[in-house]
Structures are given as structure tokens and as C-alpha cells.
Amino acid sequence: MYEINGFIIFNTEDSTIILQNELGIVQVDNRRMIEFLCFLDTKTSKFLVSNVDLNKWFGSELENALTFLLTNGILKLELSN
Predict the structure, then answer these.
(1) Does this model's pTM top 0.90?
(2) Rounded Cα distance, 28 and 19, in Å
(3) Four-point Cα dihedral 60, 50, 70, 42, nearest 10
(4) Mutual orientation of helices 62-71 and 31-41 as an angle, nearest 10°?
(5) Which residues pair with 4 in a beta bridge?
(6) CA angle centred on 19, ends 79 and 22, rounded to 5°
(7) How many angstroms separate the CA atoms of 3 and 74, rounded?
(8) What is the pLDDT of residues 29-74, one digit of tens each?
(9) 7, 32, 44, 59: which could join 21 in a potential S-S bond, CB 3.0 to 4.6 Å?
(10) HSE, side-chain direction, 13 A CA sphere, residue 60
């Protein structure tokens, strides 16, 4: 399971978004990733994302998507109590 780190989305005039969080700023142009990030933006930080959820969103691109999400600090592994 993965927790959502806080972020802000800025819409651009073209088909990209700019995402800002505590780690920095990244431009996103992948349509599926943009849709997923906009979905996450409607959730609270307590919302958890599972591998099953990610697989539904990204299918065969799951590994690349997860690498992007973790590397850019958008998601983080949930710490067990």
C-alpha cells in the first residue's frame, strides 16, 4: 500500500500539468498519469493506493508509473505500525 504525499497541480494551456510537492516540480504529459494524479488530488492524504489500484490505472505500464510516482515523491510506501 502507498500513501499520498501532498502536492499541488497547475494546469497548463497545452495538454500537460505541472505538479509541485516538497521534493520539487515536475511536468507531466502522459494522459493516463495526468488522469491518475487528478484522481489523487480529490482524495485526502489518508487515502491509500494498492498495487491492484495502480495496475487498474496503468496495466502494462505499472512498473514505469510506480517508479515515476515514487521517485517524484507523489506516493510513498505506507509505514506499518
Answers:
(1) no
(2) 7
(3) 100
(4) 50
(5) 75
(6) 50
(7) 9
(8) 999 999 999 999 998 778 899 999 999 999 999 999 999 999 999 9
(9) 7
(10) 0
| Cβ partners under 8 Å of residue 59, min gap 6 | none
CA nearest to 45, candidates 15, 75, 79, 4: 4
CB 59 within 8 A of CB 42: no
Q: Would you say 7 and 75 are in contact if contact means Cβ atoms under 8 Å apart? A: no
| N residues, the chain | 81
